[in-house]
Amino acid sequence: MTPSEFRLSSRAQSMKASEIRELLKLVGKPSMISFAGGIPDPGLFNVGLFQDAWRHAFGGPSIAREALQYSTTEGYAPLRQWLADHMRKLGVPATAENILITSGSQQGLDLVGKLLLDKASKVITARPTYLGALQAFSALEPQFVPLEAPQPTGPDAARLIYLVPDFANPTGQTMSRSARQNALDQAKVLNAVIVEDAAYSSLRYDGEDLPAIAALDAAEAGSIDATRTLYCGTFSKTLSPGLRIGWICGPATLIRKLAMLKQGADLHTASFNQMVMHQVAEMGFDSQLERIRSVYRVRRDAMLAALDHHAPPGLRWKKPEGGMFIWLELPDHIDAYVLLEQAIRQDIAFVPGGAFFPDGAGRNTMRLSFSLSDEAQIEVGIFKLCSLIGQQAMAKAVNVY
Ligand code: PMP
Predict the structure, then answer these.
(1) For residue 120, what are the contacts with CB-CB under 8 A and spacing of at least 6?
(2) Distance between Cα 199 and ligand 1 center (Å)
């Protein structure tokens, strides 16, 4: 029997393998300068602290048995408490009851989708936005509506507003305080839930700290349990993505529903990983943040400087105040997918921006990540990439005459 003969669900039938992921499989080559992955530099992981935490989790028979046993769906109690304290520092008055540990914030996105969406339900997102959120929500066959579009109210209103307010993937841009307030006001009018994806929020390199939407919401509502924001956090961009530890912070009623949904998905996030992550967070979260911010700031500045030097006319970008990404807009006639094939032949990789639009727009855009390459690689990579873009722009000019 071939796969085409099985009677798959309509959602599985409509899923396509990403052509970009296929191309980017080549990125593992050692000679490649990759601006593609939005991933932390493994050279910055605090390996020693993780080794100590692993030894601690297996330190005595009773703690080792706890690490090896099933545990509760809501998560390892000391980690929930650590995260409630962390959220309070961000102005969100959480207790452990307001925290659900998830297997990465990606699982958080999957669960909030299942909590809120039926087939054809409306989801408001920025355009472009995080590909993984589009994938998680798409499995539920909703209708994506751009943030700027006029929104119907009543039974047909959007149920979920998905936002990445800080240093967004893919654009690197940050929502102003008034844009956050407007989103909250709009959610109230629509009676929608805001999903605040805070994957990069700790990675600010300059500019002033802005309040989380969850904090604005709690300040207005007077209590976290009266809010409508589900904050999806993660240790992936700060401590380690490999242990797959994220969290959702929100009103306890929704957290309890989300825990029921998580039960059906994986019973609970790995006990051992939660215990290790708790220990590492307790011992070294602040120092790790300080270290990675200083390294990524230098890399961001190196990429901005290289673009200033080498970019041909017609390229546009903005300085991100944090995160891992610079978003490039190319002249309209340049196709970033075609450019990627040429770039890969020259050992440079990036992600074509079209991947981040729900409707196939944005073919003349690209996402550059500065987290994985050192300053010398960034200079060489941006020089080569800008030369390629310049050649494409020139080819068009020749065609005209
Ligand atoms: N949200 C955003 C905006 C991301 O960029 C990512 C990872 N690329 C995630 C969520 C998911 O991260 P994780 O599951 O590792 O927490």
Answers:
(1) 141, 142, 143
(2) 6
Atom of ligand 1 lying closest to residue 168 CA? 3
Nearest ligand 1 atom to alpha carbon 236: 15
- The verdict on 361 and 347 lying in the same domain is yes
Q: What is the mean pLDDT of residues 225-247?
A: 98
Tell me which residue has its CA closest to atom 4 in ligand 1. Answer: 199
Residue 255 and residue 169 share a domain: yes
Confidence of residue 3 (pLDDT cuts 50, 70, 90): low
For helices 375-400 and 336-345, what crossing angle results, to 10°? 130
Q: Which residue has the higher pLDDT, 2 or 29?
A: 29
CATH of the domain at 206: 3.40.640.10
Q: What is the CATH number of the domain that holds 306?
A: 3.90.1150.10
Q: Structurally, how many domains does the chain consist of?
A: 2
Residue 390 has pLDDT above 50, yes or no: yes
Domain-ending residue, one of 252, 284, 316 = 284
Side-chain half-sphere CA neighbours of 64 within 13 A? 5
Give this prediction's pTM. Answer: 0.95
Task: Give the distance (Å) from ligand 1 centre to CA of residue 307.
Answer: 26
Residues 227 and 119 reside in one and the same domain: yes
- Note whether 101 and 139 are same-domain residues: yes
Which one of 39, 164, 169 would you pick to mutate in the ligand 1 pocket, going by the greatest count of ligand atoms within 8 A of its CB? Answer: 169
Which protein residue's CA is at the shortest distance from atom 8 of ligand 1? 38
Asked if 232 and 91 sit in the same domain, the reply is yes
CA 105 / ligand 1 centre spacing (Å):
6
- Contact status, residue 42 vs residue 34, Cβ threshold 8 Å: no
State the average pLDDT for the chain: 93
Structural domain of residue 25, as residue ranges? 3-46+286-400
276 shares its domain with 291: no
Q: How far apart are CA 37 and CA 350, in angstroms?
A: 8
Pocket lined around ligand 1, Cβ cut-off 6 Å: 38, 104-106, 130, 132, 164, 169, 197, 199, 234, 236, 241, 246
Q: Ligand 1 mean position to 131 CA, how many Å?
A: 9
Q: Could you tell me where the beta strands, DSSP code E, fall in 128-268?
A: 143-146, 160-163, 193-197, 229-234, 246-249
Same domain, 146 and 242: yes
Same domain for 232 and 174: yes
State the CB neighbour count (10 A cutoff) for residue 190.
21
Largest CA distance in the chain: 79
